[in-house]
Amino acid sequence: MGRIILFAAIFCLFSSGLQAANPAATFRAGPATALRAGLEDKVVEHRMKNGMKLLLVERHTSPTVSAWIRFRVGSVDERSDERGIAHLLEHMLFKGTTTLGTKDYAAEKPILDKIEATAQALTLEKTKRDKADQGRVAELEKQLTELETQASRYVIKDEFFELYSKNGGVGYNAFTSRDGTTYLISLPSNKLELWAAIESDRLKNAVLREFYTERSVVMEERRRSYDADPESKLWETFLASSFLAHPYGQPTIGWMSDIQNLTRSKAEQFFHSYYAPNNAIVAIVGDIDTQATIAMVERYFGAIQPGKELSPVTAEEPKQAGERRIELLAESEPTLMIGFHKPAILTTDDYIFDVINMILGSGRTSRFYKKLVIEKQIATDIGAFDAPGSRFPGLFVISATPRSPHTAREVEEAILAELELLKSEPVTARELQRILNSIEYEEARRMGTNGGLARNLTEYEAVAGSWRYMTEYRSKVTKVTPADIQRVAREYLTRENRTVGFITKKGGENK
C-alpha cells in the first residue's frame, strides 16, 4: 500500500499488528481507532443502475460537505498513441460545457469544428517530419491561430471556478495519476445540489474548447517542470528505466512527442469512452441526509449512459536480472534514488513493505534519517516511498540528497549497509513502539476531515477494490512479524532487483 499521497494514514492502521508480534509494545486507543471502528456502520454504499458507485458518510460537526469523483482511468490505461491524454483531459474538463464557459455555444461550435479540421491537417503534415511541406505547415498554423482567436470571443474563463467560489466552494481541484483521475470540491452543505448540477453537466456535455491552446500550456509545463528540472528529469528517466514493459514507466504528462500529436478528437473519444458512471466512484462526506443525497445524485446523474469497460492492462514487467544504473549530467547538486521492484496492493508482502517503509524512511526518527542525516551527516535529507502506483507491482524507492562534500556514492553505500542490517537483525521492540506512538495522530488528522476521508474512500475503492481495505488492514498487519520483515528484505532488497539513479554535476567527478 504505502502510497505517497496516503503514506501517513496507511501506517496509522498498523498498531495492533505490531502489538501482536511484539508483546512488549503497548498502545492506547485514540481518536483514529474510534474513527476506524465506526466506518463500517457510517459508510453507506449505493450502486446506481448506470454503474456509478456512491459512498456516503454523514458528519454533522459543521455545515460543510466534501465531494470527490474518482474515475478508474489513469495514464496506465492509455494506448501508445494516447500517452498524456488523461492528464490533458484533466486540464480540459475545467473549460466548460455547452452551457457553461460559453457566451453562445451555437455560434462557437462551427468555429470549434473548423479548428479541429485545421489542427488535424496540421498534425498530419507535421508527422511527415523532413518531408513535410513547410509552406503548408505555416499556412495551417496561421489559420489555426486566427480560428482560435475567433473562438476565444465566445469563451467565459473559469466559469466553473467562479460559480463554486461565489457559493462558498473551496479546494476546487483535480489530479491525474497513473492509476486514476479525481475531481474534488468542498462547499457548504446547502450548496451540494450545485455540485450535482455542475458535475453531471460536465459528464454529459463537456466541451473541450481551447484544446490546442491548452495543449501548448501542457507542453510548456513539460519543458519547465520536467525537461528543465534535473531532479524531475532524473525521476522520469529512473521510472522509464525501471519499467521496460509495463506502462508504469511512462510519464503521466506524456513525452513531448506524445503531447504534440494529441488531438481534440482523440481526447473526446477517450473521454466519452471512459469518463462515465460505470468507471466512477463518488464519495460525499459531511453534513448530509444520506437518503436525500442519494435521491439527488440519482436525479442528476441517473440518466447518464455507461461508457466502455476499461481494457485490462496485460503487460507484465519481466523480472529484473541485474542492477541498472542511471546517471544524469546536469548543473545541479547531487541527488540519489534507489528503487526495488515490489508487489502490488493487497498482496501479503505489500503489507510488510509498509512496515519496512516506516522503519527505514518515514520521518526524522526513521533509521535512514537518524543514521545518515543526524549521526553521519552525509545527507541533508532522505526518505522512502512507494511509486508510481498501487494497482500493479511498483517500486520501493529511497531518495536522498548528499551533503557537500559527501558524494552520492557515499550515501548509496550507507543506505545499502542499512538494508543489510535490516536483513540480518530483527527489528527491535523500541522501533516498533516508535511507530505505535506516531501513527494514531496521523490517521486521526487525515480521517478527521471530510476531504481526507472522501479521498481515502475513493482511493481504496478504486485501487483495492473496496474502501473496506481501511478497516481490514488491521487484521492483515497483525500477522506481520520481525521474521517477515527480514524475509521480505532478503527477497526484494537485492542487487539484481534494484535500479540506482543519480545526478552528477557537469564537470564534476563521476562518483
Can you walk through the features of this model?
With 511 residues, this protein is an alpha+beta fold. It contains 20 helices and 11 strands. The strands form 2 sheets. The chain has a 6-stranded mixed beta sheet, with helices on both faces. A hairpin with a 5-residue loop joins strand 1 and strand 2. Helix 14 crosses helix 20. It is globular. The N terminus is likely disordered.
In short:
The protein is α+β, with helices and mostly antiparallel strands and 511 residues long. It contains 20 helices and eleven strands.
Helix proportion: 40-55%
- Count the strands? 11
**Helix-and-strand structural type:** alpha+beta
Mean pLDDT: 90
User: Which term fits the overall shape?
Assistant: globular
Report strand order across the widest sheet. 1-2-6-3-5-4
Number of helical stretches of at least 4 residues: 20
Largest sheet: 6 strands, mixed
What portion of residues belong to β-strands? 15-25%
| End-to-end Cα distance | 33 Å
Low-confidence stretches: 1-29
* Radius of gyration, whole Å: 25 Å
Pick out its properties.
511 residues; 11 strands; 6-stranded mixed sheet
Layout of helices and strands, plus pairs?
Elements (H helix, E strand, L loop, with lengths): L6 H5 L3 H7 L9 H12 L1 E4 L5 E6 L5 E8 L13 H8 L12 H22 L7 H19 L6 H8 L3 E7 L4 E8 L3 H14 L5 H17 L2 H13 L13 H5 L3 H11 L5 E7 L3 H12 L22 E7 L5 E7 L5 H14 L5 H9 L3 E9 L6 E9 L5 H17 L4 H19 L2 H14 L5 H9 L4 H11 L5 E8 L6
Parallel strand pairs: 2-6, 7-11
Antiparallel strand pairs: 1-2, 3-5, 3-6, 4-5, 8-10, 8-11, 9-10
